[in-house]
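Can anyone check this?
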Amino acid sequence: MKDLLENNLGFMGAGDSYEEANIAIVGFPMDFTVSFRPGTRMGPRQIRSVSEGIEEYSYYQDKDLVNASYYDCGDVRLPFGNVQESLERIYQVAKQLIKDDKFPVSLGGEHLVTYPVLKAFGEKYQDLVVIQFDAHADLREDYLGEPHSHATVMSKACQLFGGKNIYQLGIRSGTREEFQFAKENTNLYFEQVLEPIEGIVQAVKNRPVYITIDIDVVDPAFAPGTGTPEAGGCSSKELIHAMLGLKNLNVVGFDVVEVSPIFDVGDCTSLLAAKLVREAMLAFGT
């Protein structure tokens, strides 16, 4: 796995031993298939950089990263423009992390990077539940004829695990066909982020869960630093509380994707992502 990774700025407080860590942070700096504004390849680096600006202590959970065991693996070394090879490398790294019994925390990068991680998890958990926070349905079979796109990632998740195991929160953008597909096949909550949490927890119970957060689920007033901003989203506060509402589930992996620093204002989007990573590690990885 080491030959596929390159060092980057470490997340705040990360330890220096992969073997002893329970949590493994890894960056996927890829934005080869974005449909609007590129730049998410810089997301992992900036999330790490601004993490120094937040506290290690979480008042929400009364927990501290000082008591967490986590290691920052760096970024996967990706060949620019080669989507297939990039996805294969991400898959191989995710597979190794799972084999080593780590809790993976992935930093995107475009949302397509979630697909090879889910593929790796699917080899261990055939009944995996995927909880998606996102502005976009991402249920297209292809985008302009290309099946590998950040607009197709949840369609691929449906193929892996079945649509009824996919929970989509905050969705407010998609084609007519995507919404029709979701109505018939997935659990899509139009615009809702906090409201469905209690029901999802009851439905999922002890099954393995993967949480993927596309930062554009948040209204661009709170998180402008993303490639496909979509008005009408939730607040940062609502997203944090929604994610923490899942803390009693059997969460086996987590990612935050689509942070595009070049469109950010005062690093507020990257800071939100860093805070979500902190809360996720404390809620699910400890």
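Reply from J.R.: I decoded it. DSSP finds eight helices and eleven strands in the chain.
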